[in-house]
Design brief:
The protein is an alpha+beta fold. It has two domains: 113 residues; 113 residues, Immunoglobulins (Immunoglobulin-like, Sandwich), CATH 2.60.40. It is 48% helix and 20% strand.
């Protein structure tokens, strides 16, 4: 109770501080809008690539999130996706399940952050394989110029799914093609991209905190709306785009 009372006393002190009140009335809205605008601009740059090549990924990540809160059925674990040489796990590798006879793709899933993958399917004979492509995000003036820079693939093999028994199959991915990241231009572009994304994340977080402050302290409904917008942007970045970051260069 003392902690809660202390929080309310602190909020009351902030509300009565003339310097903070003046800042809220004159400049806080501008700071919040600038942070949201820059964060949204970076979001537009990031969002084009995964939505073009990973249509199923947002649904997969949403299902993973709901599973963590026990709001959706957990996906069974069949095995791990990892590198052949280093044995490091590979998150967000696309895993395809094909019909053994027709060779048609039945389902596509992704390895989670622990490298685990699996499917909910009826018993039968299937073929599985894993692929992870690495792309370079396109520039603003040429949004369709998305370049594939490297690919990791596993061997495809037959797997039998038996009722009441989970199959066990680890997928070892190896480099099929490798992008030369030692070039000067590639290093500069990677640094610029990382700096811009981190700056956008920081400004977006700052705008969320500013909106929360304006909503709680100034009790202005507009800041509540901006807070909701900022949280939605951050959700998209954290649960959809940042997860794909390891798939892009």
């Amino acid at each position: 109770m003392q902690i809660i009372q202390g929080v309310f006393e602190f909020l009351e002190a902030l509300q009565s501080d003339p310097t903070l009140v003046s800042f809220v009335e004159e400049r806080l809205l501008l700071v919040v809008l600038v942070g949201l605008a820059f964060g949204f601009a970076i979001l537009l740059v990031e969002i084009r690539l995964p939505l073009k090549y990973y249509w199923n990924l947002p649904a997969f990540l949403l299902h993973e999130l709901l599973s963590d809160f026990r709001l959706a059925r957990n996906t069974p674990v069949w095995g791990l996706c990892s590198e052949t040489v280093s044995k490091n796990i590979i998150p967000l590798a696309a895993v395809e399940l094909l019909d053994k006879d027709s060779k048609e793709v039945i389902k596509v899933t992704f390895s989670n952050r622990l490298g685990q993958y699996g499917f909910n399917v009826n018993p039968g004979s299937f073929i599985i394989r894993a692929i992870k492509n690495h792309y370079v995000a396109p520039p603003f003036y040429d949004p369709e110029n998305i370049k594939l820079v490297s690919t990791d693939e596993s061997f495809a093999f037959v797997i039998e799914v038996i009722k009441d028994e989970l199959p066990k199959a680890d997928l070892m991915l190896q480099h099929v093609s490798v992008y030369d990241s030692s070039k000067g231009i590639a290093k500069v572009w990677h640094f610029f991209k990382s700096f811009s994304i981190n700056l956008g994340n920081g400004l977006l977080a700052l705008s969320i905190l500013g909106s929360l402050y304006g909503w709680v302290i100034a009790k202005t409904p507009l800041y509540g709306v901006l807070l909701a917008v900022g949280i939605v942007f951050m959700f998209i970045k954290v649960y959809i785009l940042e997860a794909v970051g390891s798939s892009t260069s």
